[in-house]
Fold each of these.
Amino acid sequence: MVKPYTPARALRSASAKRLAAPSLRGGPKFPSAETRGFAILALTWWNELPIDIRTAESSHIFQSRLKTHLFPLHFER
């Protein structure tokens, strides 16, 4: 459902491990249903993560960095 972003020409952001937006052609009749779909939300959340999390060397390092990133966002009071 999600695909890596590949720029048409050489860009510095090519190594940022971003995801590409899916095509909206052939989707449901109501755009609001499409925008709430997994493919849109997943790529938006992924692309908003800091680069050091997206480029983690292993799943263990990714999980650790993600947890460290998310805890202050949700438990800061």
Amino acid sequence: MLRPGGVLLVTVAAVAFVAAVDPNEQGHYPTCPFLALTGFQCPGCGSMRTVHALAHGHVQEAFGLNVLTVVMLPLLAVFWLRWARARALDRPTRTKAAHPALIWGLFGAIVVFWLVRNLPFGSFLAA
């Protein structure tokens, strides 16, 4: 349980830091390099502000900043729970995190989100 516990500890510390240090205020965090170089938003743009909003209980605001992050957080939690349970039961670590079709589906969803949020009709997805 050392590794899952370590990941949980680092995650809680990172969320606590983002909750305490507002990413909406300039100068606290660097600008997204992809955004700075291209002027387009990457799939993760708005994620820190989303985590900040969620940490303060502002779910609707979080959905408006980066819906992909809000949707992916429960999925990441499920993967972490599966991993922690396997470690707690001393089961061997699986060689695959998930079925390849799921992984490719998630990858495709991220790419589509990335493209659509940068098109005029998808501006509602831009943070």
Amino acid sequence: MKTMTCKQLGGACDAAFRADTFEAIAEQSKQHGMEMFRIQDAAHLEAMQRMRALAQAPEAMARWLKARKQAFEALPED
């Protein structure tokens, strides 16, 4: 198991996600983001806006995603 925070994944808080794979961590982060959107958390809405802007440039988004995955892989096991 490895742990990444919402902030490490481009979000706005220190909520921790734990999983064996980056894909599983990303799914947990997505669910967290959906909840933050549902409650209209201002800090998370700002982070989502930054991610939307990044998504407008597919190459930049791919580089960002690759960097997050590499960061996950470099983490020690919990």
